[in-house]
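Reopening this one. Same input as before:
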Amino acid sequence: MTSATGIPDAAVIAEGVGEDEPLLGRAGDASQQEGRPLYYNLIIGKSAPNARYPPLTFFSGTAVIAQAGLVLLVASIWASIFLHPLILFSAHPLLNSAGILALTESALLLQPTHTAAQKRQGTIAHFTLNNLGLALLVAGLIVIEYYKFSHNDTHFESPHSILGLITYIFLGIQALVGFTAYFVPNLYGSVETAKSMYKWHRLSGYVILTLMLATVTAATQTDYNKNVLDIKIWAVLIAAVLVLIGVLPRIKKQKLGLKPKPSEALGQ
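Same output, byte for byte:
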């Protein structure tokens, strides 16, 4: 419910969750409540309590859908790997799927933050998980390239490998811009100029998440998967859709500049 000014009615916004509005839901939904630990952001849902089942309040948003998708994705890949004899190549999908898991969780952690203290804590956690995810993905790249060189195999010819290369390039740029804009803002001339990069960093992050999921989907069509691993494309597609359904609706309109904050709407 909103007033005549378009400002969300305080009665429908839970205390301490802010007034940012996600793509799906009301102002204050999918926001970290003040006093709640950061890890709640991995499952947090609606701001208003569930009247009939209060404990379900934090499980009523879309984050749990993303978690279900991640579990299905990682389980599908790891089960297929460990049901076959382990070789050097096995480390490639294991490391890459773990990297995607870490990067997605880092986004889920940061999305609901809205106060300065939460954003600072969330950014440090986001930075740490991103470093872990990138390290895993780079290790996965090294493994597959070493494997292909040692077997005189072709490089970057399949849709999977081409998508993977594009994703790695975007990830490198994303990591560089994200780190410098937040930790070394003077490189952009001023703190305000660096902050203007944030919305583009967020937007490109969601594009990269989609690219990573597309790359995994393409991997199911490689000869090695068809002949050996047999990771099901339907399982990966369902998992990818669940992850996107879980992550994208939590995007805050104000953080992407799609909607002004209430104070800005009043000219304050």
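So the earlier flakiness isn't reproducible anymore. For the record, The two ends are 22 Å apart (CA to CA).
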